[in-house]
Amino acid sequence: MTIVLGCIADDFTGATDLAGLLTRSGVPVSLRIGVPDAPPQPDACAPFEVIALKSRTAPVEQAVAECRAALAWLRQGGAARFFWKYCSTFDSTAQGNIGPVAEALMADLGTDQTIYCPAFPENGRSIYMGNLFVGEQPLHESPMKDHPLTPMRDSNLMRLLTPQVTRPVGLANRQAVAGGALSARLADLAGQGVAHVIVDAVAQTDLDAIAAACYHMQLLTGGSAVAMPLPELYRTAGLLDATAEATAPPVIGPGLIALSGSCSAMTRAQVAAYAKDAAAYRLDPLVLAGEGPGAARDWLAQQVPEAPKILYATAEPEEVRRAQAQLGVARAGEVVEAALAQLALDARDQGVRRFVVAGGETSGAVTSALGVSRLEIGAEIAPGVPWTYCQSDGQDIALALKSGNFGAEDFFATALRKLDAP
Ligand SMILES: Nc1ncnc2c1ncn2[C@@H]1O[C@H](COP(=O)(O)OP(=O)(O)OP(=O)(O)O)[C@@H](O)[C@H]1O
Ligand SMILES: O=C(O)[C@@H](O)C(=O)CO
């Protein structure tokens, strides 16, 4: 099948978030882990293809190269429209790659304008006058200010994006979006040479209006929610006639585990809630850096595969800062990711088949260690978090990859319950 929309996501939880929201419309969606080595086979492609990268904190050159390779693969599969998915909290490092990737994709596609819309109202992310809010807080006052890898200290998307790009940045504000004037505003900005347009959105109706005005653009960028209306728009425009076949999910063995490397505020509450009833082991980056994950692996080896358990490095901001001060930001993250990846492998070899993983970077490390290349999208657990199915070492497994701030406080228990009763 020809690819109708080719999507590139900068982390794994973001990729499952996007794939899950697109799946709501009943279109076939395929999620690949990394750019496939083999060229796309038309009979093995879905109209919506999502390629998951682990490029959010990668240096600009590396992120650009990976995203251009993903674009080339998707174009080979027939895609003419593309979506660059980054975080709904616009997570990027000081040398952020959101803008450079967008500019590189625009250059490859020969297009002069794109939009930036990370808003996700269902999960409390909104944009007003170019400023991003998390719930009622501006981004820079929200818990995202303490993120271990991408602390967000400014809420203004124009100020965040401008240093990342070479061409002018502009704003299409809520008045233009809600007043039906977005297309005119984009044309006006294009006339002024504005290549990068931040678009306000505070409600799903705004996102519907944005998608309707922009679905024809070669490149759209944003969070998952602005992509959600695209399948229906493509259907109406005659670009898409496929509907996903209803297939029964594979039967998944009962062994289960939760692994958390996210230090986001919601994950901290979720870990605390789950640890009340599950066996829990806390990973300390300083111990991991000195002694490796041996003690955690021994602990895991003592656990019953079918019993609820969680291994987590999730910690309060002061503890994260303490580990980073001793190890450096990158090494602190790496030892945790490497340990959780090893523990996932151990768990699989012990017979665990149900994995709930919190954190995008963490999910990237775990999924890669499990040797997964493609995910089937299953039932949604919470907005932006579906169950997914894949094979690891020839075994059917289920993975729920949870973005740091998504899901309610009882997420881990809810996820595992919903696997059997969606
Ligand atoms: N105690 C800790 N000290 C220092 N770094 C930590 C600690 N615990 C986890 N980390 C690192 O913090 C990073 C958290 O990023 P991750 O993407 O996994 O979570 P998240 O940002 O909350 O999730 P998402 O991107 O999906 O919203 C990882 O690199 C992880 O290894
Ligand atoms: O957009 C979001 O918030 C998530 O899909 C994500 O990217 C978290 O890493």
Automatic annotation (TrEMBL):
Domain Four-carbon acid sugar kinase nucleotide binding: 258-412
EC class name: transferase
Catalytic activity: 3-dehydro-L-erythronate + ATP = 3-dehydro-4-O-phospho-L-erythronate + ADP + H(+); 3-dehydro-D-erythronate + ATP = 3-dehydro-4-O-phospho-D-erythronate + ADP + H(+)
Extent of the signal sequence: none
Superkingdom assignment: Bacteria
Molecular function as annotated in GO: ATP binding; kinase activity
InterPro entries per UniProt: 4-carb_acid_sugar_kinase_N (IPR010737), 4-carb_acid_sugar_kinase_N_sf (IPR037051), NBD_C (IPR031475), NBD_C_sf (IPR042213), OtnK (IPR050007)
Pfam family membership, one: NBD_C
Domain Four-carbon acid sugar kinase N-terminal: 5-229
EC identifiers of the protein: 2.7.1.217
Keywords: ATP-binding, Carbohydrate metabolism, Kinase, Nucleotide-binding, Transferase
Role, per record: Catalyzes the ATP-dependent phosphorylation of 3-oxo-tetronate to 3-oxo-tetronate 4-phosphate.
NCBIfam families: OxoTetrKin (NF043035)
Similarity field: Belongs to the four-carbon acid sugar kinase family.
Protein name: 3-oxo-tetronate kinase
